[in-house]
Amino acid sequence: MNPVPAVKTLVIDGTDVSASSDQTILDAAQENGISIPTLCHLDGLTEVGACRMCLVELKGSTKLQPACVTLVEEGMEVTTQTPRLQKYRRMVLELLFAERNHVCSVCVANNMCGLQDQAKSHGVTHVRFPYRSPALPVDVSHERFALDHNRCILCTRCVRVCNEIEGAHTWDLLGRGVNSLLISDLHEPWGESDTCTSCGKCVQVCPTGALFDKSKVGGKERKNPDFLSYLNDMREGLR
Amino acid sequence: MEKLMTLEELEQIANERRAAKEKSPRALNVCVAAGCLSLHSDAIKSALEKEVQRTGANCRVAGTGCLGLCSQGPLVSGEPDGCLLKNVAESDAAEIVARLDSAMPERLLCSREQPFFQRQTVIVLENSGRIDPEKIDEYIAADGYQALVHALTEMTPAQIVQEVSRSGRRGGGGAGYPTGLKWGTVAKTIGTTKYVICNADEGDPGAFMDRSVLESDPHRVLEGMIIAGYAVGASQGYIYVRAEYPLAIKRLQTAIREARRLGFLGSQICSAKFSFDVEIRIGGGAFVCGEETALIASIEGRRGTPRPRPPFPSQSGLWELPTLINNVESFANVPTILRRGSEWYASLGTKKSKGTKVFALCGKVRNVGLIEVPMGTPLRQIIFEIGGGVPEGHRFKAVQTGGPSGGCIPEQFLDLPVDYESLKEVGSIMGSGGMIVMDDSACMVNVARYFMEFCMSESCGKCIPCRAGTAQMFELLTRMTSGTATPHDLELLEDLCDMVSNTSLCGLGQSAPNPVLSTLRYFREEYTEHIVDKHCRAGVCECSKLAEVSA
Would you say the pTM of this structure is higher than 0.90? Predict the structure, then answer.
């Protein structure tokens, strides 16, 4: 049995906040209107701490900690915006843009994209790293949806929502490192997947134009992941 | 057979084995660990066996573990005089057996008086090359399992943890975490089900310590694990071995079977209220699975990727239960620590790094092989006395320790005593114990590129800095070696080193820039030469060839 969570008080960016001991720094910050950038995090899904956008500085530690998985502690002093953190966040974004083929102007998610939004807010006007320009396929075998690997940032939100919420576990990753690839079932075309229920949750949680509705054209793929909190509340009997 | 209970019964097995040896004291022990085996030492062993049978000579022929000096293999050691024969071939069998009573041929003799053997202090390797790794009674005759029986019958778990803590033994990870502290944490964590894991997913380029220990003396590792199980309150252990080590796996399987037969594994071991069993889990070839949380994920049957810590495995490990995870060398030290006492163990080594360290000495050095020295032994002694120095005609340039997480140490630090702190100070790490010696034929930019290629292809891909950052660093280093880099690329490379080491999720990414950082620190002029002059002083990089053509 889990112990009853205690109340902790801490300081985030100079603001005193209180939080329950089972909350993360990110939870506490969001509750208090302090914005910490994220890419792989989504309310309602398990955390993976993979994108490193939410790294924050803690007083007394030289190590940066991901806000999405670090639990609050009494007396903690958190800084979410420093030149160093902003530099690292910009570099994460630059690395993503250089990793695959992100061409916003022809993307279905143009102006509605998590990656693009972060780039805008972090002032990423250009990419200093060599573009890797890998040759990646597009899977349009599904009746309603499509997967464009060129725009995938491997955040695994789709993998998690399919496994944790829909319970289908259609998506997973193949290979490793820069060669990681999102696959459906045992690397079969999405349209031939036995497990996919065509529920479309993966499309809604995808922060970029990697997963999209075939009926949408450039700049029209508006994602709506808000259903997650509702489903989670239902599951826990809160609604 | 009746299960073993007491020290007396253990002694009886040991005595029987010793008596059998005394009856026929003469023996030829052929190294059948992977190094010599790759030179067909198994064929030499059967040739010797045939020859002994043919001549009717009174001599046993046995297989044994690693004798250490791998570069002179295949090696055969003789009993009872302890002579060592090097570069043995199948065709030498007749001559060796014929001269059992006289002197062995000069060309085959390998002196045990040389510094390679004399300068070592062996704990982990004490039975290596001396016992048959497939026979449990040979291990028992070498005082094996005494520590376990003693621990189970006369010590409390807390006393064992205290002994291990007092020994000062530290782990093989980058930080050298104290083994005793880890044991204590797991022991104190509340829970009825706990696990012990032995990390044998050795994967650093040039490192083969764990493989050799498992092939040469598997019971030592098992004994350490069982003692650990008792000390922390676990009843199940796993050994995670990489699939590339088939011989180590086979020897472990034999050892586990034998240990079960004698009751060292199973229920109510030595009549104590303690049950423990060990299973082998075979790794699928991912370097990152040496990282403890990735290793645990792999044992659980999931994709082998690390997760953020905390929680640490000591609190929430395998199947979210308290888990003790140590590497092969740490477990292999435990029986000796208990048998000879923590005080004795702590008397070896330096102030903060106790005991001994096993190194796989390789690269441009005369004596390639496996060595064990007290912590604090100067690099110069390891490389030039034990290792015999670099082969003639070349000059020592640097030594790489700690694998892809470590760094290159230049000549000016050769008198550095090797311990956790001093290595860290000069930009490298102790790590698992790989030691690659490089001479002036090595290009440091190329070396950095080699390790970056390794990290890039072994990155699991979960976190962005490691996945995309190592790929970018590899690309930038490739530009340098191929002569297309600009000074701006060096700036980018340094920026990435800083970013990847500070933002990556696990140790693999956090330490991936180390080979670049350490070569930049000591050999920066070589980078400049590659970028500005398009020149590689070692003559190994493509950029030199380009410059020649255009000149």
Answer: yes
